[in-house]
Amino acid sequence: MTDRAMIEVTGLALRRGESFALAIEHLSIPAGERVAVVGPSGAGKTTLLNILSGILNPDAGHVRIGETAVTTLSDRQRRMFRARNIGFVFQDFELVEYLSARENILYPYRLTDALSITRDVRDRAEALAASVGLEGKLRRKPANLSQGEKQRVAICRALLPRPKLILADEATGNLDPANKDLILDILFEQAQAAGATLLAVTHDHALLPRFDRVINFDDFAAVPA
Questions:
Q1: Over the stretch 20-67, which tens digit does the pLDDT of each residue have?
Q2: Which CATH class is domain 33-57+74-216?
Q3: Can you quote a single GO CC term (predicted)?
Q4: Residue 136, exposed/middle/buried by CB under 10 A (0-12, 13-18, 19+)?
Q5: Of all residues in the chain, what percent carry a pLDDT higher than 70?
């Protein structure tokens, strides 16, 4: 881990209607750090991940990922940046129902010319799948996978490009205790191997001691009404 910031957020504000508002005056996460994010449902944890990844643009404020000012990029530039640099494990998986598990893992490579499918990429996809216990199930479509297996496919897809930033939204939420530890081991190992930063939203407080730091959303002030 280094002192160089992978994530730098200043003056962030986003409002959605009258019922939701998010405000973060300052947040800095060093490169290589493993950080858990906790807080009540509806506090904005998933929204923060969406802003960091460039899926959402805030109403105000600045977000820098590495050397890139994400909030200054166009929609297309944010998509390209995300494909190259960010692995996102979505809470609801975001799997494509008509594709096999194997093709879902490779799916980001089909969406952008920022990534290219090579033999090495295919071999890495197979190795990742085997590491999470998906061998023998890569031809199955999501409808024929358990919730935990869908979660593992989503994790493999996020890790495949060796991203410098891994965003995980309840990545262990659909797993039994033994598999929670396995998945967290894999996320940590892959992050360390790539020199990546890991930011993980979780409601499982039993996992918190394994992280370098815990960010509690209760520490952020609400946007004034």
A1: 888 999 999 999 999 999 998 888 999 999 999 999 999 999 999 999
A2: alpha beta
A3: plasma membrane
A4: exposed
A5: 96
Q: What residues have CB less than 8 Å from 185, skipping those under 6 apart? A: none
- What 8-state DSSP symbol labels residue 55? S
Residue pair 181/105 in contact by the 8 Å Cβ criterion: no
Distance CA 67, CA 154 (A): 27
CA distance 173 to 147: 10
pLDDT band at 87 (very low <50, low <70, confident <90, very high): very high
Helices 147-159 and 177-194: crossing angle, nearest 10°? 10
Distance CA 153, CA 147 (A): 10
Does the predicted model carry a pTM greater than 0.85?
A: yes
Which two three-digit tokens encode residue 222? 């609400």
**Amino acid at position 137, single letter:** K
At 61, phi and psi to the nearest 5? 105, 175
Give the three-state DSSP class for 92. Answer: coil
DSSP 223: P
Separation between Cα atoms, residue 208 and residue 1, nearest integer Å? 18
- Give the burial class of 110: count Cβ atoms within 10 A of its Cβ; 0-12 exposed, 13-18 middle, 19 or more buried: exposed
- Report helix angle 147-159 to 101-111, nearest 10: 40
Query: What pairs with residue 26 in β-bridges?
Result: 10
